[in-house]
Design a protein that fits this description.
The protein folds into two domains: 274 residues, Aldehyde Dehydrogenase, Chain A, domain 1 (3-Layer(aba) Sandwich), CATH 3.40.605; 188 residues, Aldehyde Dehydrogenase, Chain A, domain 2 (3-Layer(aba) Sandwich). Helix content is 39%, strand content 22%. The N and C termini lie far apart (70 Å). Bound molecules: nicotinamide-adenine-dinucleotide.
Length: 479
């Protein structure tokens, strides 16, 4: 069986404690590899390597344009290696091959974008009221960045942090999810092959409390970029606060997909499908609350149920499979638990609602609940699975009220042909991203992140580089 070590200082190393964790294929339910189960000693070694690399003139002394050139090289290598990396990631998290392949190819584009930004980070001269002095702003890399990611899109979510951090001139220690570490260890070696000095990119694998927590608490880690659930996010925020570190937190959501009576039905139905059932609903931006205007409620639900019941579940590596298994055993059990809670709360299950052990892996049927009340847990809490709740609304004001009536604020979508209504809704919905007549679009150019309990800070776009830079003000006396 393949055994992965940590990736520290340009080498794959065995864990100091000698312990490993099995990593399972959620379709076959077989353990196909082992990953190092790290501890605080491994974290210390990785942070030392990252600190040394940050001080190494071969990294800190090169021009921003040379950093950009290195990022371009690694972007090309990622494109070359995309099929291999996608296969590893897919074996680990069971996502559809078509989706993982597209995502990993896009990781290359992501690095190309930040390669172009590396030498566009500019300071500026500012006026002052003291006279005779030159006052200017320099932006300097923060130093060693801790990166902690979940299992749903490991390479993508790592790159959302790593690419801007490297463009800024930082170095990094990555702690991937214990369920999906293999592709990240392989990915780290591409940076060595592209010519990055050893220690610029490091990976320590293992559990959240054993590796993630010591990484966040390490005094030499300047900033933490985290994507994951709310509980771990809050813990990371607390640990970072003790060290007075900055953080970027991308947490969960309970995003409303709001369909008005004048929407294009077919287009909206596709948007509902990709919003909740793509990636088997294991997506932070999942459109898990479908808000339907009362006048189209029955008609839309009828088509939605027929559509949902036609979804093909099966082997995620096959091109005609529409929904794969759930990535991890705990997540599979959590989804089934929420389905039971919804039933007990009085929601009506009109499609799906069961596990599918006959298909082999950890499958949950695409599930739709109607008669959902906003006080129910199924309407308020993130399931992170293929479970949709449908809620009627009367008019725009009602849609805004229900749409915003959750603790989260990651994303929202509005389906209407009325431009004025679209503009009004986009301004009133409390969410970091609002789509009109589409769902799930993201880009390296577009800032992504949450309001309310969905997170802190933004990833992607030009501003993401600023998350990894400190501001320094310089005063030069003229006499
Ligand atoms: P999780 O929060 O359990 O774990 C995320 C990462 O944090 C893992 O690497 C884990 O080992 C680590 N971790 C756990 N406890 C920690 C601790 N005490 N200190 C430091 N690190 C710790 O999440 P998950 O189950 O892997 O992923 C699912 C969750 O992630 C969902 O709730 C989902 O909404 C969220 N998510 C958010 C986004 C986004 O962009 N907003 C994207 C994907 C997933």
């Amino acid at each position: 069986m393949k055994r992965y070590g940590h990736y520290i200082g340009g080498n794959e190393l065995a864990p100091r404690g000698g312990r490993y964790l099995g990593t399972e294929n959620p379709y076959t339910c077989e353990t196909w590899a082992e990953v190092a189960r790290g501890d605080a000693d491994d974290v210390n070694a990785a942070v030392s390597a990252a600190k040394a690399a940050f001080a190494n003139p071969a990294w800190s002394g090169i021009t921003a344009s040379k950093r950009g050139a290195l990022l371009r090289k690694v972007a090309d290598l990622i494109a070359e290696e995309a099929p291999r990396l996608a296969q590893i990631e897919q074996r680990d998290n069971g996502k559809l091959a078509s989706e993982v392949n597209a995502q990993v190819r896009y990781v290359s584009d992501y690095f190309h974008y930040y390669a172009g930004l590396a030498d566009k980070v500019q300071g500026h001269v500012i006026p002052n009221d003291k006279g005779g002095a030159l006052t200017y702003i320099r932006y300097e890399p923060k130093g060693v960045i801790g990166i902690i990611t979940p299992w749903n899109s490991p390479l993508t979510l790592t790159s959302w942090k790593l690419a801007p951090a490297l463009a800024a001139g930082c170095t990094a220690v990555i702690k991937p999810s214990e369920f999906t570490s293999c592709a990240i260890v392989e990915f780290a070696d591409l940076f060595r092959r592209a010519g990055f000095p050893d220690g610029v990119v490091n990976v320590v694998t293992g559990l959240g409390e054993e590796v993630g927590a010591p990484l966040v608490s390490h005094p030499e880690v300047a900033h933490v970029g985290f994507t994951g659930g709310e509980a771990a996010g809050v813990r990371v925020y607390e640990l970072a606060a003790r060290g007075l570190k900055t953080v970027t937190l991308e947490l969960g959501g309970k995003s409303p997909n709001i369909i008005f009576e004048d929407a294009d039905f077919d287009q909206a139905l596709n948007g509902v499908f990709s919003g909740i059932f793509a990636a088997s609903g294991q997506s932070c931006q999942a459109g898990s609350r479908l808000l339907l205007q009362r006048s189209i409620y029955d008609r839309f639900v009828e088509r939605l149920v027929a559509f949902t019941q036609s979804i093909r579940l099966g082997d995620p590596s096959l091109a005609d499979t529409q929904m794969g298994p759930i990535a991890t055993r705990p997540q599979f059990e959590k989804i089934l638990k929420y389905i039971e809670i919804a039933k007990k709360e009085g929601a009506r299950c009109v499609a799906g609602g069961k596990a599918r052990p006959d298909l082999g892996g950890q499958f949950v049927e695409p599930t739709v609940f109607t008669d959902v009340d906003m006080r129910m847990r199924i309407a308020q809490e993130e399931v992170f699975g293929p479970v949709l709740c449908v809620i009627p609304f009367e008019d725009e004001a009602d849609a805004v009220r229900i749409g915003n009536d959750v603790a989260f604020g990651l994303a929202a979508a509005v389906w209407t042909r009325d431009l004025q209504r679209a503009m009004s809704m986009t301004s009133k919905l409390k969410a970091g991203t609002v789509w009109v007549n589409n769902y799930r679009a993201t880009s390296f150019t577009a800032p992504f992140g949450g309001m309310k309990r969905s997170g802190v800070g933004r990833e992607s776009g030009m501003d993401a580089v600023r998350e990894y830079l400190d501001t320094k003000c310089v005063w030069i006396a003229a006499r």
